[in-house]
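Tip: read the tokens left to right.
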């Protein structure tokens, strides 16, 4: 079975890996006639620190972590570069439950349409009475700084045109523990995909997508952040959110969505005397966040313990992988722009996700918009259709901390665990069928287990 598809575009190679049944090969070979030295015995991985608190996981000292959180929580103003189009005034607005960096009830709106050839096309949204058309994006910003006193006749609020018939909401993702997710080696995620494909005969097969690393031009890495795995690095993710959610340009994404009403010098996020911009503080804050802890009291109940076994037995754990281990300290990642430190290296954590893309019947048909996530220059050279394989796939929702969520699945349309399980179709159809085949007591036990995470 074909295992990889490569798309080489203007020096950037995008790689999709899925459905492999071949064994992993490669590794060092001994010179001919000489025995190979025994590998050094690696230290056993330590458990990643857990907690809903403001204490650093060890990546930074607590004072630095608190200062970075203050940046993360800060409300931006027009004089800071807010807008012209935006969704929130601070990172915390979308990541605050139960603490800064968590999830929220906030959703974003994404739209598009199908072209004459049946493929997904980005939205075209006219603003200012049609004088400007916003293109190259699927995100609809729900707030704007105009019209205002300085620009009373400038109408830039985006609205959904009738032509954009593909419409979906996406919940804000949680960031707690994402420093450990970033520190997972690409090979770990690729091997999970291969194992799934082999075990399930291709019925369950996570898609691995290599995406650009903004801070390392020309380099790609396995995506893991965002509902479409559109980013692999927390600095890239921070830059994207600062521009597209708050409208603040930065060193990695320096171009505004529209120049109408724009009065602040570009890029808005200029590095300070120490060489760090706000996006650097945001990335450092997230890297220092602890992983979400389970509810120990709930997890100790007989029902939750039985439910944990059933969760694995019926196949939920094929995608909702319980345990991952980060790369060793000293490993360069993100195109060599970040080195895994001791605080994040060789750590075991329990996200209950494979961070891969799956079609479970809830996909929205939207591809990754290149210009929006990776900048206008790349948008001119790499067509969005390079990411066509992700259209109906969504990243496996990490279940750590899921007991703090009131809205479930990527779109927030499921309000109970039972609703969310029932919506799993596509690759997960057989697993859902097994859940539905459990007796009432066993179904409740499995749900009790989810309530402990």
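Filled-in amino acids:
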């Amino acid at each position: 079975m074909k295992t990889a598809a490569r798309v080489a575009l203007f020096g950037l190679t995008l790689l999709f890996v899925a459905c492999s049944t071949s064994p992993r090969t490669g590794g060092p070979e001994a010179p001919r006639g000489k025995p190979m030295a025994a590998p050094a015995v690696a230290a056993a991985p330590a458990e990643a620190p857990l907690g809903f608190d403001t204490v650093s996981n060890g990546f930074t000292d607590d004072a630095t972590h608190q200062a970075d959180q203050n940046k993360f929580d800060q409300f931006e103003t027009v004089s800071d570069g807010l807008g012209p189009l935006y969704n929130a005034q601070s990172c915390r607005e979308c990541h605050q439950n139960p603490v800064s960096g968590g999830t929220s009830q906030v959703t974003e709106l994404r739209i598009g349409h199908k072209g004459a050839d049946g493929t997904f096309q980005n939205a075209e949204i006219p603003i200012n009475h049609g004088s400007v058309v916003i293109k190259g994006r699927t995100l609809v910003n729900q707030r704007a700084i105009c019209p205002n006193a300085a620009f009373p006749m400038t109408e830039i609020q985006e609205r959904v045109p009738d032509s954009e018939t593909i419409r979906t909401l996406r919940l804000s993702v949680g960031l707690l523990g994402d420093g450990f997710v970033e520190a997972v080696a690409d090979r770990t995620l690729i091997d999970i995909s291969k194992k799934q494909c082999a075990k399930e005969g291709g019925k369950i097969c996570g898609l691995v997508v290599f995406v650009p690393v903004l801070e390392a031009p020309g380099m790609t890495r396995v995506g893991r952040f965002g509902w479409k795995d559109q980013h692999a690095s927390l600095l890239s993710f921070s830059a994207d959110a600062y521009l597209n959610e708050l409208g603040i340009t930065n060193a990695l994404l320096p171009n505004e969505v529209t120049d109408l009403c724009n009065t602040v010098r570009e890029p808005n996020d200029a590095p300070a005397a120490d060489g760090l911009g706000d996006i650097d503080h945001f990335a450092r804050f997230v890297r220092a966040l602890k992983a979400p802890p389970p509810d120990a009291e709930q997890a100790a109940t007989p029902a939750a313990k039985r439910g944990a076994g059933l969760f694995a037995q019926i196949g939920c754990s094929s995608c909702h992988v319980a345990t991952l281990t980060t790369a060793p300290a000293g490993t360069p990642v993100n195109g060599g722009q970040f080195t895994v430190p001791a605080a994040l290296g060789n750590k075991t954590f329990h996200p209950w996700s494979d961070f891969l893309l799956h079609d479970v019947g809830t996909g929205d048909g939207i591809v990754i918009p290149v210009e929006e996530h990776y900048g206008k220059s790349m948008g001119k050279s790499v067509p969005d259709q390079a990411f066509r394989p992700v259209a109906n796939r969504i990243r496996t929702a990490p279940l750590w901390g899921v007991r703090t969520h009131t809205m479930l699945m990527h779109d927030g349309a499921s309000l109970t665990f039972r609703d969310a399980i029932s919506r799993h179709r596509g690759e997960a159809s057989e697993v859902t069928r097994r859940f539905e085949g459990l007796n009432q007591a066993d179904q409740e036990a499995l749900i009790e287990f989810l309530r402990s995470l």
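The longest strand covers residues 107-114. Residues 6-11, 20-36 have pLDDT under 50 and may be disordered.
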